What does this fold into?
Amino acid sequence: MLTGATGGVGQATARRLAREGAELVLIGRRAGALTELAAELGAWPVVGDVTDAGFTQGLAAETANRWEHGPDVLINNAGAFQIAPASETEPSEFERIVSVNLVAPFTLIRAWLPAMLGRGSGHVISVGSVAGRQAFPGNAAYSASKYGLRGLHEVLVAELRGSGLRVTWIEPSAIDTPLWDPYDPDRRSDLPSRAQMLKPAAVAEAICFAISQPAEVVVEEIVIRANPVGGGGRVG
It folds into this structure.
């Protein structure tokens, strides 16, 4: 099960996992793009907003009808992003970003974790960010959400060790996706250029690597950074 399936990382991950023969449930808000991607990959598209508790409850029930014990792998990939000083970040925008990046992953994990524990297997993957480990100016809401998500991941690692479940944190540096479009990073000295960013396929490969390990192997954390030639900038 993959959230944020129509974004850059989501599409790359869906295609990469489909090549491995995975049976996919793709979740996203853009119905047209989601339906098209699902048709291409032979996946099950579910249109909805992961911040909507009613949607999550309905998804859990619908998934139970398809898979009695729920998904084998839950990939929390949906994300929201903003660059703004803390003094200019509206509380409503802060709440929105935390809701997408932190509350929604917890809600989804909570929906399927009991079943995973009951059968003694399952894999929870959370796509984080370097901004969940290192503070950057302008990342008040985003960093708060990603630091929180990393904290949730680490609690799950501690709680689930020895349970048969696997929990993985994927931590990329800046990724070249449309989330950067409003900020035009190629024209700003305080941001990495798109040439200095990771490509979505790199994150997809990391996710696939974690999933493909033998059941007795837990990859708890994968940190990936771009290796550009030339000058730097902030990575968020």
